[in-house]
Amino acid sequence: MKTTTKRSRIALALTMAGILCGCTEFLRENDPNRITADNYFTTPEGLRDAVNGIYSPARSFIGQEEGYSVVVFGTDMFTEASDESASWNSKQFNRYSSDLNARSEKIEQIWQNCYKGVNNANTAIGRAENVAMDEAQKNRLIAEARYLRAYYYFWLVRMYGPVPVKLHETKGVELDFGRGSETDVLTAVIDDLLFAAEHLDAKSAEWGRPSRWAARHFLALAYLTRAKDSNDYQLALANAQEVINNSQHILLPAYADLWKLDNQQNQEIIWSIQFSPVESNNGGAGNRGHLFFLMEYDLATYHMQRDVENGRPFKRFRPTEHLLGLFADNDPRYDATFKTVWYCNSAQRLPSDGSLHLGDTCIYLPKHAMNPAAKASRPYAVINPDQYSPTTFPSVRKFDQPDRVDAADRDGSRDFIVFRLAETYLIAAEAAFRLNGTGAEYLNKVRARAQQPPLAQISIDAILDENAREFAGEGKRWFDLVRTGKLIERVRKYNPGAAAENIRDYHVRRPIPQSEIDIIHSDLFKQNEGYN
Fold first, then answer.
1. Is 262 a member of any domain?
2. Domain span including residue 297
3. How far apart are CA 479 and CA 490, in angstroms?
4. Which of 20, 22, 31, 261 could form a disulfide with 112 if both were Cys (CB 3.0 to 4.6 A apart)?
5. With 50 as the cut, is the pLDDT of residue 327 above it?
6. Residue 295 lies in a domain
7. What is the tally of structural domains in the chain?
């Protein structure tokens, strides 16, 4: 799918349709070119291109600093590292400071791109009825569009709470915006996913397009999130069981294999968002996850220099002491998740006494403190846990991009994994626990892959801890903590400093962008509590 969804004619088609708009642009007049677009979208090729274009807005925040900042920061797993760039304004998401407000650019960018995706989906869905083609193929395309619309609304409702629900293409000026309840939004998400689960193929024709099993997994998570009664938990469990028992997906035997650059299309992945190295093809800037979790390894005192293989260290996110302490010493996920050994890569920076050579260990960050005598005997830098700092810390390695053009290159081509089977097991565990206090058998499947002993009983905290070991850095944590009602408790307990001091109950929602409040200017469209 990396080529088929990114052809240049997509951009032309969407420009003609006038559908590259955010929620703000719903208020604008009709596109004068719409007659041409109307003709184009009545063809099967036009409908396929319209569906392909729904993916583009996601790449503007998924895999970007916007998407990472709002779900990685301000949790029990990651806190801020050392970067103080004036152009980077994300630390408010960790500090829960007054800068986390309705005028945040990142808050606005996510809102606008989600509604771009929604309206692109609405256009494809609405125009499909006039396309003459095989009905089964048409329904599959509509199902794909509805799945993607659900994805954007799922982001919106978990970020902002009640949001406007629009299920038709915006063709003119609309001012009667109200905010549907969270249940209303999630019900719309579930309705779309039920249609998708019925009409999508069991195995998608192209990697990166959702399958029936992706819709089932998504349904399980949506029911778990809505959870208005016990029936939702039962439906969450049933859909998760469908994927676990009947799909082609498996847990890879080795956790580390998930992150091999040449293994991105593996059987554990249920759905991923595709990227390519070419920025113009992504509707954004490539997947930049490889930048944000790296420590400052390229200090002269460490005898290293920045290079392509080790990455460009933006030093945004560093793991909390709590996260690092969750892993047992024999849990292979620790070494698969964190880079703790760095090798000498610069002849010019080697010490003059000849104690180190190219390829030797230059930096080592042990999980447990090395005693002073042992540390002094090493020719390389040993950074004990009590010395971890905003510049020096175990670095998430899952998103490494050692095939970039040069050491300064920021854009990456890794796919962004949205859903994988390990999450399905943990969804099943959470749903079963909420229903009747069971679910250990599902959680233990994930632990078994990591060679960890089974748990006889589980709790929400046990599920969250396993989730942390399994998904560190993968962009799920803030949502998981909000869903389980644990955000405030865990930030105060495990993210000391400004985060713990400043977080308040209302921080389980993000502010509505002020630009939307100003334009709509309606009593039906009010700001979230705490952000006025």
1. no
2. 291-396
3. 13
4. 22
5. yes
6. yes
7. 1
